Amino acid sequence: MKQSLHIQLELLFGKPCTAERLDLRPDIMMKTDLVTYWKNEQGEAILQEFDGREGYIYQLDLSLTSSIQLPLQVLAIDIHAMYALSTAAPLMLIDPVQQQCYPLADQRARFFYLPARIYHLQVPAARIQLFGFYFQPKLFRDNNERPFKFLHPLIHAHRNRQIQSLCSVDFKVGNTTKNYIEQLLRNVKKGDLDSEKYILDTVITLLQLARTEIYDEYERTSDPEELIRRCRQRIADQIRDSSQPVILKNIAKQLHVSFEHLCRIHKEQHKTTLLAYRDELLLDKIKGLLTSSSYSLSDISERCGFSDSNSLIRFFKKQTGTTPAQYRENLR
Description:
Layout: E1 5-7, H1 10-13, E2 34-40, E3 43-51, E4 56-64, E5 68-74, E6 78-86, E7 91-95, E8 100-104, E9 108-114, E10 117-123, E11 127-135, H2 152-159, E12 166-167, E13 171-172, H3 175-187, H4 193-219, H5 224-241, H6 248-254, H7 259-270, H8 274-290, H9 297-303, H10 309-320, H11 324-331
Antiparallel strand pairs: 1-5, 2-3, 3-4, 4-11, 5-10, 6-9, 6-11, 7-8, 7-10, 9-12, 9-13
Helix pairs in contact: 3-4, 5-7, 5-8
Domain HTH araC/xylS-type: 229-330
Organism: Sphingobacterium paucimobilis HER1398
InterPro entries: Homeodomain-like_sf, HTH_AraC
């Protein structure tokens, strides 16, 4: 991936130096030739970078005796993630064009949509560890961004080439996320094709972990009515928008509750089973498609998550007592 973020350490520290001149040592050294070392009266810095085909990652270690404003030059529109792994006081990403400030506290992270221009990162006098990566939103195709609601405004802004910067909610960097970041930094190796795939897989994993952290912090609920409302909404959304079968146990996992508990409280609230609710919505979708002569049974099977037409016919007959062909004939 072409580098589109330049952390302009040279504007504050001058020329880079050798590692031997620094007292600062990073916790993890990446296997990359893109490592630069910096030192002056303001402190020390180590920037490690890895240019992968599907994503660009970096680790910035700082030890500062005074606070600084670090220029960040963004050359192309990507989606950025920044993780403050360690900082004594919040970092602040500043967009001078919009006069907008985005805080980033210790062991917190955010995603950003950053149009091309110069930004500034306000960094306190302290020992700082900042991990970041950025990627092109073409990673999201065919509505596969739907589970990542926290990214929707950023993806929308990118697709419309908006000139305003945006950020997601901030979220905790949990232990699982820290472990994944450490694995990523230890395992990437320049020129290794396996590392290219590993970066893509790990970026996707970090997105999934961010979704979980955000859900736990902002969306998790112990209210049974709200839980079932979210459950039914997820089922309805998946049936409406996806051609994949809706697996109820996966819905329970997404909501961080047991499948048995979800089924029980759904039955208590709606006097019907969760399976019956799913099948009712699926049947409505099939009936809607049958009203159009442009869809064959094979087309409908594929759109509704059945393995073949025979599976669709068996399901439809069990639910209605008639076949899809008979139902379509009766509509005429």
